């Protein structure tokens, strides 16, 4: 492991691995031994921190409950090994932005927040995490751009966060329905999704379940559709680029798909709705991470055997640009002033990245690493994607995710995220645009034009504050 000279083996490694493999004896490869290094290249930390050192962490309640159980035990064990009292609070994903916002405004709260969407809008209240990011790169190599794009602001040369992982967002389809419709390998293009989805809906009454509601799954789908049709929301420097023929075509496509292969429920969905519909056999296709699939496995749901996975769908020009599902981005507010706490937080984050193989395993392969080399077990031949340790049939069903980084992009693409990108993401303007056209409230052209104006106003506001633009 490059840049790491001192390794401390700890008891949690044996405990967690033994418990995990008692349940999943068919696992092909074990996670790497857990270690809490004190040195990362030229950066060093205390082996043990002074008495009274504390670290308070707020993060989401993971979609895969197993991960939270592991993380809480890991954090407690890390605290004992480093003489730090660690407190972890899990909250609903929708509560993360307002909780961080309130803490920044009050100048008090947790020391670390793990955000799962671009947190750039909070940059003025966050500490620069350059040390952690540079130490991680020295130790592990460059992180995937799907992560660095969500933690670094080029125009100010600021690392406002540390992204240690991300989640692919494949297409999910019911094999039996699509085989009957003439697509034995599921849809590969948006044209397939329309033609096959329309046929399935007409013959079986089962809709294509892609949302147009102000929630994260609808947001991911809208962006993936726009990008794959050759459109953009922003250009490389963060200026609005929405009003284009390609985006208009994407909105027209979504209107057609809704009218011929969907139902009005998609306008009022929450993040669990498409999962629930699919598990119930009431959706021919959804765009989602594998959390619902793991739930169905635990419930011995027959839908598991009928589930097929596909990469991002190709647009009219053959482009495939599917957004990632979430990102794991730790931020430290500026009010954190205690030097021992700050150093403890930095060491905790670097140690967590060191132990990425456990984060991936204990999330049941939901979490993908920012530093790919830290989890060779996931990608190597015969590894977890070839032989799912949690029992897929066939064992390599998840192998479609092996090259997910090649078809995955991010909010702000083709540039990095910035405060305007973050605000547009959190206000769901793109989903609203799609819904307005699908309902017939506006033409596709007018919906795109009006939304471009709204986004332009947001960009102008943040540009005036020097937080949108090209790298200096």
Explain how this protein is built.
The protein has 472 residues and is of the alpha+beta class. It folds into 2 domains: 12-167 and 326-406, Periplasmic binding protein-like II (D-Maltodextrin-Binding Protein, domain 2), CATH 3.40.190.10; 171-323 and 417-464, 3-Layer(aba) Sandwich (D-Maltodextrin-Binding Protein, domain 2), CATH 3.40.190. It has 18 helices and 15 strands. The chain has helices at residues 12-23, 65-82, 96-106, 130-140, 145-148, 175-180, 190-204, 216-228, 245-261, 273-279, 291-298, 339-354, 356-362, 376-379, 404-407, 419-427, 429-438, 444-464, and strands spanning 39-40, 43-44, 54-60, 85-91, 112-115, 152-153, 158-159, 162-166, 171-174, 285-287, 307-310, 322-323, 327-331, 368-369, 408-409. The chain has a 6-stranded mixed sheet with strand order 4-3-5-13-8-14, with helices on both faces. It has a 3-stranded antiparallel sheet with strand order 10-9-11. The protein is globular and about 70 Å long. The two termini are 33 Å apart. The model is unreliable at 1-27 (pLDDT under 50).
Q: What is the class of the largest domain in the CATH system?
A: Alpha Beta
Structural class, judged by helices and strands? alpha+beta
Task: Specify the helix fraction band.
Answer: 40-55%
What form results from the Cα inertia axes? Answer: globular
Distinct helical segment count: 18
Distance between the termini: 33 Å
**What is the third-level CATH name, the topology of the largest domain?**
D-Maltodextrin-Binding Protein, domain 2
| Major sheet: arrangement of strands | 4-3-5-13-8-14
Identify low-pLDDT runs.
Answer: 1-27
Number of strands: 15
> What's the pLDDT, averaged over the residues?
93
What is the annotated CATH architecture of the largest domain? Answer: 3-Layer(aba) Sandwich
């Amino acid at each position: 492991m490059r840049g790491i000279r001192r390794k401390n083996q700890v008891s949690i490694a044996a405990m967690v691995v033994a418990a995990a493999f008692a349940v999943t004896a068919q696992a092909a490869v074990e996670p790497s031994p857990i270690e809490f290094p004190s040195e990362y290249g030229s950066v060093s930390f205390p082996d043990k921190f002074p008495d009274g050192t504390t670290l308070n962490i707020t993060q989401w309640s993971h979609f895969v409950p197993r991960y939270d159980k592991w993380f809480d035990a890991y954090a407690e064990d890390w605290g004992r090994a480093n003489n730090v009292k660690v407190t972890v609070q899990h909250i609903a994903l929708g509560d993360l932005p307002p909780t961080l916002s309130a803490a920044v405004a009050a100048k008090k709260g947790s020391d670390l927040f793990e955000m799962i969407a671009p947190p750039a809008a909070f940059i003025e209240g966050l500490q620069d995490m350059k040390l952690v990011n540079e130490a991680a790169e020295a130790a592990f190599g460059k992180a995937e751009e799907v992560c660095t794009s969500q933690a670094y602001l080029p125009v100010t040369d600021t690392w406002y966060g540390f992204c240690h992982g991300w989640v692919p967002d494949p297409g999910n389809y019911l094999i039996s329905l699509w085989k009957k419709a003439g697509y034995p390998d599921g849809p590969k293009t948006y044209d397939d999704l329309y033609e096959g989805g329309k046929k399935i809906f007409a013959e079986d009454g089962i809709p294509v379940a892609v949302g147009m509601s102000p929630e994260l799954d609808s947001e991911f789908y809208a962006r993936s559709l726009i990008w794959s049709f050759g459109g953009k929301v922003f250009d490389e420097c963060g200026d609005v680029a929405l009003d284009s023929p390609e985006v208009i075509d994407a909105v027209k496509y979504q209107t057609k798909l809704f009218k011929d292969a969907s139902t009005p429920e998609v306008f009022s969905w929450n993040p669990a709705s498409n999962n629930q519909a699919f598990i119930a056999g009431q959706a021919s296709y959804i765009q989602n991470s594998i959390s619902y699939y793991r739930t169905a496995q635990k419930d011995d749901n027959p839908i598991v055997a009928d589930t097929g996975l596909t990469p991002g769908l190709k647009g009219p020009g053959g482009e495939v640009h599917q957004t990632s599902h979430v990102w794991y981005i730790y931020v430290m507010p500026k009010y954190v002033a205690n030097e021992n706490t700050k150093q403890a937080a930095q060491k905790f984050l670097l140690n967590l990245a060191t132990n990425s193989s456990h984060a991936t395993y204990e999330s049941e392969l939901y979490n993908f690493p920012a530093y790919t080399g830290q989890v060779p077990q996931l990608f190597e031949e015969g590894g977890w994607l070839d032989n799912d340790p949690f029992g897929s049939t066939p064992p390599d069903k998840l192998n479609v995710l092996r090259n997910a980084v090649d078809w995955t992009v991010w909010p702000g693409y083709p540039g990095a995220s910035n405060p305007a990108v973050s605000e547009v993401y959190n206000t769901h303007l793109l989903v609203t645009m799609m819904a307005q056209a699908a309902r017939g409230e506006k033409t596709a052209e007018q919906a795109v034009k009006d939304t471009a104006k709204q986004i332009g106003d947001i960009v102008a506001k943040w540009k005036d504050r020097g937080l949108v633009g090209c790298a200096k």
